[in-house]
Amino acid sequence: MWRKSVRSHIVGKVELDKARLQHDLEALAAVPRVEEEYDEFSSGYWKNLSLWNSSGEADDTMYRDIQGSAKPTAHAAKAPYLDELIHTVFDSKIVKMARARNLVDAMVIPHRDFIELNKDNDQYFRTFMVLEDNGSAFHSDDDTVIHMRPGEIWYLDAAAPHSAVNFSSDSRQALCVDFAFEGSFTEDQIFADKSFYRPDLEPEIVVRKPFTTDHRDKLVQLGGIIDNDNFKDILFLMSRVHYRYDVPAAETYEWFVEACRLADDTTLTAKAEGVRDYMIGQRALGERLVAAA
Amino acid sequence: MWRKSVRSHIVGKVELDKARLQHDLEALAAVPRVEEEYDEFSSGYWKNLSLWNSSGEADDTMYRDIQGSAKPTAHAAKAPYLDELIHTVFDSKIVKMARARNLVDAMVIPHRDFIELNKDNDQYFRTFMVLEDNGSAFHSDDDTVIHMRPGEIWYLDAAAPHSAVNFSSDSRQALCVDFAFEGSFTEDQIFADKSFYRPDLEPEIVVRKPFTTDHRDKLVQLGGIIDNDNFKDILFLMSRVHYRYDVPAAETYEWFVEACRLADDTTLTAKAEGVRDYMIGQRALGERLVAAA
């Protein structure tokens, strides 16, 4: 039995119209990727199209605190079904951003979000709905690995260490809708039509293999080969482990720092600690650490 | 003393006009990346803009055998200095393709090119000129690692195992101009003005650390951790080794296949052998192997 917690969980469900959805998915797949801010902590093909945002500019992918609701961009016009869903499923007056995202043969390593912004973390409410079924694509949240099914509306606890991966080269588009509240709120407030609110649904939690101390030792022993050149390869290798083995995502950084200590390289160890603190600890607005520098 | 060989070598030199070049570099940096064919053997930021190609279409990045010369695309108009260099330095009548390329915190792993096309390999002549100095960006060719300096025109022996890397997150734009000949030719034929032909110039060859059997053993011992999920991480980790240690690029695949054998996983071993054969062995036109499948 799934116990609902403050962590990521299903808040709603949409029966997707496959024919209308297919049109939008194809239209969005045809949009060339916008050149984003250089991101040293992602790998593979990562696409992020703003449907609604603070400026209304299609190329603006930055989340910002705004008064009122976000404005549709030119990409929203290409995806009329998704634009309609944002209007009819959600309370569009409080939508702060809506993005169509894709991740192919790619991973976003464990991290926390929103820790740079002004509000308390619990004033942000991010939802995520997978649009294409992909059995090789997963999300992780603290110590849980999830396979999201199309149409499920998930609350993502961005303040907890989380990660996303697609082990395959097949597409996995998703709709990410962000809300922000002033003061107290209940989850059902994000919906225009409360029939979409379905906090009772059970998620598909991935059953993982046991994580052994022998496995942990082997990972830390990568300290025998770690250096500045393969720092990122090893960080990414370690970041994938929790998807298959039953261990919290954040422990990735423990093995990683221990491996650098084993290499007896103080510069590398300091760099690894810096990455750990940047990804799952506190960080200042705009601060960027280049792992591969 | 550098011994000229049939492998990659300097064929010419241009004194670059820094002010005019800067304009073009900024204009090309502002062009959003075209969504390219999915490439499972690259990592990081890899940009490829067609200045001249077989179709004249800016979004067409495919090399094809063509009669006569390539046609300028819309990108050539944005880079008037580079377009002028293609006209005045090279014999533009026999230019088959000209591309502005960038590689940032990225690597193209050891591979051979052109083995799919119709002509004998020695009928293709690819030149490469780095436009920005970047002390962390290297090329490798068989058993040599090169730091190319701005303005040097290199012949790239694409039929030999070669690789490119930029260990930094700084830009490293380059101009790649392809020629193809019918029958015998001499290298100076690519130049419109023979004063650019400078086969006497000495390259900057990177002095690497000795590669030891202990280091080799440690790499092969990665078989203790290799699996389907980290297959690509480990391939990339191994592919970087030859840039720092004195060992031929192609040996990467020996360690890699040995590591998979050590893991005693026949499926993984077959996959590694397939990647090796695809990258540095023979392959059929259009055949694609997905390393991360």
TrEMBL record, chains A, B:
| Record-level Gene Ontology MF annotations | 2-oxoglutarate-dependent dioxygenase activity
InterPro entries reported in the protein's UniProt record: Asp/Arg/Pro-Hydrxlase (IPR007803), IPNS-like_sf (IPR027443), Pro_3_hydrox_C (IPR008035), Pro_3_hydrox_C_sf (IPR037037)
Which Pfam families does the protein's record reference?
Asp_Arg_Hydrox, Pro_3_hydrox_C
The record places domain L-proline 3-hydroxylase C-terminal at: 189-287
Q: Where is the Aspartyl/asparaginy/proline hydroxylase domain?
A: 22-179
Query: Highest taxon of the source?
Result: Bacteria
The name of this protein is L-proline cis-3-hydroxylase
Q: Which organism encodes this protein?
A: Amycolatopsis alba DSM 44262
